[in-house]
Specification:
38% of the residues lie in helices and 15% in strands. The protein is built from 14 helices and 16 strands. The protein binds ligand KE4.
């Protein structure tokens, strides 16, 4: 039955009058599913509650940070303790080295790390560092991978993959994307061709080692290993964007899971535990080029903010102590299997991908392996699925091209209720031919 959204709608209208689209990030605007977004009052464990008091099982988890669920006691206590001493000093604080040490201990390839305030900042800084370190300008990214709203990465493939990228947002000058090549994800041959043609100009290859921004797309081992081999062969840097996968698919991220070590890693989301934190780190000989030690400039007023650091420290310490990863992976796989079985029973074309506690149910019968196959999903059917689940108290990411996240706070009952809701929605979709 339709949700009571009276207060949500009023609050959203109010926001629309003063904030573009009523949101501080377009991903929240329900653009891909239609209708107005819910205005959320609070989160607790596996749940979100909107301003009308509706309760939802939450599979967004703030787009990844809440692997422990909302308001984990240890995380809340750490924030409250840090607040006793102030919010920001504009000077080094002990919290910063403590979080850096936890990150370095966890992520195999990171020997030194710099904290920033978002994944976007991590990506833009890593690009500048890779170009500064190699003295080269060309960077490679892959269609469907998202690394934040960095000018040089808001780009579509040029006329040919080997020609310069074309901006895909107004306000991005061609000069910002001329040195960006956009290739196909999971296409080692295409990458080989690009290096053969322009290898001595390539500063870095950027990729999501499990893509979460086409929906979940799993890399082939050949793709990852070819990326590593070619970067070594031609003196380019391999940069893993683990903003989403870091501390998500394993405590050491996708690079621990797949055994491929990048030269630089970008982090975000979970390392802030819900507070604004991003980071980039990697080989010491590369990181030593970052100001003030080296010439590559990067700075930030609130980078390494003590309260945000305390939140991230508590989050990582809890993950290290509790090691929820095997249970998260098992539960996520079981949930996916039940969704696949339910969709299959009513003949809905679908496929599903899951790695650790991130998953996507695609309304596309083929396996989604790259941007071309992702674009063949039935997004209209996804929108109906989204709303059907929302009306049954299950809050999914509002786009087919996003990852769902299972948290340590999701109970067996939550997953059973999610499956029961999906069975009803799939039956409706199948029987009204939508
Ligand atoms: P932020 O600047 O949003 O902290 O991080 C950008 C970013 C970088 N790299 C990856 C792999 C990412 O997934 C992201 C951001 N993820 C999106 C959702 N897929 C955040 C949601 C939003 O933009 O509001």
């Amino acid at each position: 039955m339709p949700l009571n959204r009276e207060k949500s709608l009023a609050e959203y209208r109010r926001a629309q009058a003063v904030i573009p689209g009523g949101v501080n990030s377009p991903a929240r605007a329900f653009g891909a599913v239609g209708g107005e977004p819910l205005v959320i009052h609070r989160g607790q464990g596996a749940y979100l509650f909107d301003v009308d008091g509706n309760q939802f099982i939450d599979f967004i988890g703030s787009w990844g940070p809440h692997i422990l669920g909302h308001r984990h006691p240890a995380v809340m206590a750490a924030i409250e303790e840090a607040l006793k001493f102030g919010t920001s000093f504009g000077a080094p604080s002990p919290y910063e080295a403590e979080l850096a040490e936890l990150v370095i201990e966890a992520v195999p390839s990171i020997e030194m790390v710099r904290m920033v305030n978002s994944g976007t900042e991590a990506a833009m800084s890593a690009i500048r560092l890779a170009r500064g370190f190699t003295g080269r300008d060309l960077i490679i990214k892959f269609a469907g991978c998202y690394h934040g709203h960095v000018d040089s990465l808001l780009v579509s493939a040029g006329s040919g993959a080997l020609t310069h990228g074309v901006p895909n947002s107004p306000g991005v000058p061609a000069g910002c994307t001329n040195d960006t090549l956009v290739l196909e994800y999971n296409d080692p041959a295409g990458l080989e061709e690009a290096f053969r043609a322009r290898g001595d100009q390539i500063a870095a290859v950027f990729l999501e080692p499990v893509c979460g921004n086409m929906g979940v797309v799993v890399p082939t081992s050949e793709f990852l290993r070819t990326s590593r081999r070619l970067c070594d062969q031609f003196g380019a840097l391999l940069c893993f964007d683990e903003v989403m996968t870091g501390f998500r698919v394993a405590y050491g991220g996708a690079q621990e899971l797949f055994g491929v070590r990048p030269d630089l890693t970008m982090l975000g989301k979970i390392i802030g535990g819900g507070m604004p934190v991003g980071a980039y780190g990697g080989r010491k000989d590369v990181m030593r080029n970052v100001s003030p030690v080296g010439p590559v400039y990067q700075a930030g007023t609130l980078s390494g903010n003590p309260v945000a650091m305390a939140c991230g420290i508590a989050t990582l310490r809890t993950l290290k102590l509790e090691n929820p990863y095997p249970r998260l992976a098992e539960r996520t796989a079981r949930l996916c299997a039940s969704l696949v079985s339910a969709a299959g029973k009513v003949g809905l074309p679908h496929s599903c991908a899951n790695v650790g506690s991130m998953f996507t149910l695609f309304f596309n019968p083929e396996r989604v392996t790259d941007y071309s196959s992702a674009k063949r999903c039935d997004t209209a059917r996804f929108a109906k699925y989204f709303w059907g689940m929302l009306e049954r108290g299950v809050y999914l990411p509002c786009s087919q091209f996003e990852a769902n996240f299972v948290s340590a706070a999701h109970s067996e009952q939550n997953l059973e209720r999610t499956t029961a809701a999906a069975v009803e929605v799939f039956s409706e979709l199948a029987h009204c031919g939508e």
